[in-house]
Every structure is written in structure tokens, then in C-alpha cells.
Specification:
The protein is of the alpha+beta class and 357 residues long. It is 29% helix and 30% strand. It starts with 6 loop residues before the first strand and ends in a 5-residue tail after the last helix. It holds the Pfam family 4HBT.
Length: 357
Amino acid sequence: MVLSVAKMCDLAAAASLASLCTWDSPAGMASQLSRIMRPDDANVAGNVHGGTILKMIEEAGAIISTRHCNSQNGERCVAALARVERTDFLSPMCIGEVAHVSAGITYTSKHSVEVQVNVMSENILTGTKKLTNKATLWYVPLSLKNVDKVLEVPPVVYSRQEQEEEGRKRYEAQKLERMETKWRNGDIVQPVLNPEPNTVSYSQSSLIHLVGPSDCTLHGFVHGGVTMKLMDEVAGIVAARHCKTNIVTASVDAINFHDKIRKGCVITISGRMTFTSNKSMEIEVLVDADPVVDNSQKRYRAASAFFTYVSLSQEGKPLPVPQLVPETEDEKKRFEEGKGRYLQMKAKRQGQVEPQP
């Protein structure tokens, strides 16, 4: 991997994190990882790339879910990422800070594992810690002998009945949304000659990547974290082209992994602007896989997600975003859909704000 978790947290750091990053997790189902942020993890402004953090989140989730799925005697497996729920980038992380990633299993169904991951940043000069990310991920265990075989997940013991019931509701909701998303993501991003500024075509971007061994799991298919990092890179390029300023990831809507990507495939990661508010941009990212060495399989949609970015000044202050100009009927439709998601999330955030006494 290009990015790997450097070392386990020591006991003192783990104890400190436990008091700051907590979730309703069955007893014993938790682990912590940490590493220092380096210059190659960050953009020109010194802020750590959202894709770098997403990749660390996925690594932590893969470790704990794979460990749990192999906790009983039986066929050995590796947990594969199926979905990442919405995650917000609550605070920027900078070069020299230590990222602490805490992962805990919060629910298991017959064939899937729900993992809650929290990310804290620590300034090791001052000792200051702050929460930067919270994410929920879903994994499925795939047999080491047969990559197409999904194994059963060992159950966990819940501390209370409501915990299991709440987890089951989350499981059913994400399963339904993942299926709906797969069927409505059939279109592709086409290049346009001489596009006008502030249009969808002007900023849309694509990245082509040959999947090598370092990108893959023991099965020979791509790590979810590798895919997410590439998706964030493309979304960042789209946002920068549109604004021509420093940009940072603000949030990521649910990332759905529709199908596995095998070693040797050529993947095309495409991004296009779908909606702009006064100070944010929504970018749709699509991942298509082309099994060039296997003539029996056609190009297919492997993953999809919506990323939200904000534009920042040199001082790190939010800047107004140039308004997107949708041209075609499809672009106008996607703009209205993006506006609906924006307003829905805005209302949800306002509802979470406690009234002042």
C-alpha cells in the first residue's frame, strides 16, 4: 500500500482516546491505530487530504472486521468493504499531527459487520486532541478459497436488546439504499470540447489507474481504502478546477461498492459537479472497472459516491463558491437532486443544534 498504519497506539494513548471517542459497541469489539501525518499526506496548504483519512478509516475497519470474522474455528476469510455511510470532516488535520483511529464493531448480521470508526488528531507538541471524523462502514467476509463465497459472521453479544434492534434497522436501511443506488448509476461522464467556465463540463475530470498487487487484498482485489483515496483525488481536482482556490473535503455521502475490482483491471474514476450552494460544492464520483485481460467480462460500475468540498482562502477562511451553470436536462435534474440532499442535510444539522437557554 502507498499508505499504511505505522504502529499500534500505546496503552496511554488508547486510554486517552477511549475517554474521547466512544460508541455503543459490544464489549471487547474495539481496536486503535495511529500514525503521524507527513508532507506527502497533505495538500499545498498543509491540510491532510480527505482521501488519506478515508484510507486510514478503511484500514482500521478492515482489520477489526477481518479479525472478528476469523475469531471462531472455520473457513478463513478477509472482510471486504461494501459501503461507507456519510462521514463529515469536522476539523482539518495538519502535517506533524498524529492521527488516532479507533474502530469498534457495533452490529453483525448473518453476512455483514457494521464498524464505527472515529478519528482524533493530536498535536504532540501541545497535547491538544480534537475529533476530526466519525464514519460507519459495512463489511462482508469473503472466503480465502473462493472469492465469490460470502461466509457467515460470528455473532456478538449485545449489552442490551435495544442495541441489536437499532443495528438491525441501520442494516436494512443501508441494504435498501445500496441496491437503489446501483441501479440509478448507469450513465458515464463524457468529455466535451471547449466547455464554458462554471459549467459541469468545464471542471469534470477523470483518472485512469491500472490495479497492481500493492493495491490489492489477499484475494487479489482492490482495497476499499485505495478506491476511496482515488475517488477523493478526482473530486478534489473537480473542485479546484471549478473554484481555482485551495479546497478541502467537507463531507462524503454514502460510498457504495457495487462490485469487486480485481488485480489487473483498469479503473476509470470520473468526477463531475452536480450542485453548488453559496459556500459548498457537491461532486459525484463514479468508478468503472475494465477487466482488460478477461474478454468474457465487460466494463462495469464498481463504486459511486457524492463528495462535498468547500473553498478556502490563503488564511483558511471559507470563500464564496462560483455558481454552477447546468446546461443539459440531465445536469439540471442532477442539480435539483443535489439541492434536495443539501437542504435535507442542512435541516438535519439545524435540528441537531441544541436551543440556547
